[in-house]
Every structure is written in C-alpha cells, then in structure tokens.
Specification:
mainly alpha, single chain
C-alpha cells in the first residue's frame, strides 16, 4: 500500500514538474509576445500621430491655397470688369498714343513674369 502512495506521490511530483516547466515556458513565450505587441502598438501610435500632424499641415496649406485662389479669382473678375466696361478697340483706334504704350508695357511685364517663372522652375544644366 505504501508503495502505491509513494508511486502516486512520485507520479504527481513528476507531473507537477513537467506542468511547472511547461507553464514557465509558456509564460516566457507570452511575455515576449506581449512585449512585441506593445512595441508594435507604440510604433502604430507614433505613425498615427505623424499622419495626423501631416493631415493638419496639409489641411492648413489647402485652406491657404483656397484663400489665395479666391483672391486671384476676385482680382481676375476685377480686371475682366474693367474690360467689360471699356471698348479698348474703339479707344485704341481713337487714341493710339494713349493705349499703345500701356499695352506694350503690360505685355512686357507679362513676358518678363513668364520668363522669371520658367527660369525659377527649371534646373540649371550641369
């Protein structure tokens, strides 16, 4: 009878040892997995914050561009209104000395502006 109890105790000891070592290995694996997930979540949170900052910057830039576009449209409308109110062909025929220098100066300004813009955007050749 004692042998049976000793056998049961030894079997329980061996079973407990294997259960303990298996549980410790599983805990170690789960701890490393939890650390990996924490690192992954930290990186994701940092990425989300960066994306939110960029979105805010882009939104502000779009708002500024929209406002500038509205200003340009208002300026265009103002110029078109001037042309609607005046018959430049009739005025040029009646007073060419008055209109010709203004048209020539304005044309020169436009061409100079186009040249400056094209030089600014082009890269210098090596």
């Amino acid at each position: 009878m004692y042998q049976l109890f000793i056998g049961i105790i030894i079997a329980m000891g061996v079973g407990g040892y294997f259960y303990y070592t298996d549980t410790q290995n599983e805990l170690t694996e789960l701890r490393s997995l939890a650390a990996a997930y924490e690192s992954k979540f930290a990186i994701q949170e940092q990425t989300i914050n960066t994306m939110e900052e960029r979105f805010e910057t882009q939104s502000n830039a779009m708002l500024e561009m929209s406002q500038r576009n509205q200003e340009i449209i208002a300026e265009r409308d103002r110029y078109l209104d001037v042309f609607r109110r005046h018959d430049l062909g009739k005025l040029a025929a009646a007073k060419p000395g008055l209109i010709e220098p203004r048209v020539n100066n304005a044309t020169k300004d436009v061409f100079d502006s186009l040249e400056a813009d094209s030089n600014f955007n082009s890269s210098p050749s090596p």
